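User: Okay, second chain of the day. Same drill as before: sequence in, C-alpha cells out.
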Amino acid sequence: MLNSYAAGGKANVNNSIKINAVNGNILKNYQKSFFKRFKLDSNLATQLFDEDLPHLSKYTMDYSYDYRGYNKEEKRPVTIIQMMMCGESEVIAEIMWKDDFDAMFV
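Assistant: Same drill. C-alpha cells below.
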C-alpha cells in the first residue's frame, strides 16, 4: 500500500512517512462511566493526571463571605478506566466518579 521505494539512481534519498492510525476500539464498560475527549496539554489533562488526586474540577460562586462572591473549586475524585489516543496529542478516556467505582467492589 505504501511504496517508499525511490527510483532514479540516488543512493541517499530520505523518505519520511508520518501515519497517525488508531487501532482498536474504546467501549463503555460500566453503566455509570462516561467519556471525555481532551488534549494532553490541557487543564483537563492536568486534573486527570494529578498524582495526588485525579479529579475533575467544578467551579461555583460562593457568596457566604461577602456580596461579591468568589469562585469556589470543588475537586471530585475520578477513576480512569481506559484511555486511547485519537490523534495528534488527543485522548479519549473512559472515566468514573471514584465513589461510584469503589461502590461496585464493596
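The longest helix spans residues 43-48.

User: Thanks, on to the next one.
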